Amino acid sequence: MAKQTQGKNAQTQASASANHAPVKVMAVNRQAYHDYFVDQTVEAGIALMGTEIKSIREGKVHLRGAYAIVRKGEIWLENAHIAPYEHGNIYNHEPLRARKLLLHKREITQLTGRVATKGLTLIPLKLYLKGGKAKIELGLCRGKKLYDKREAIAERDVKREIERIVRSGR
User: Once rounded to an integer, what is the mean pLDDT over residues 103-109?
Assistant: First the structure.
């Protein structure tokens, strides 16, 4: 009986440490924050080849213009550029290939329903390493109109001006 409780305790400690693993952000899609309102975010794993994870660890990833689509009950990441690994051989990966995102079935059905009914889009916001595994933060996004973008720029300028005044006043 004592061995069972020790085993369960070790399992819970291992899963707790995986949840609180250090996060190293490798790429941020800043254009997405400019072009879209983010309603909800979801963390997903990515199915990668060996040379892809090596390129990600070197920071050679671009998410600008990338999006996720639902195909046959699975979510795929399209148009995300992961540079070929420099020391790779003939088995190096295609930079713009479609990559499968790893989510639970209920998460996929929920996201599919929201995308289909409300006209939302799945956009990758961040790619990061968490506990040695590559994860992507998907945003359920609504497109911004031109006047919304102008409003956001004006607000940012006002904040900058206030910060500058506060700093110079000290």
Answer: 91
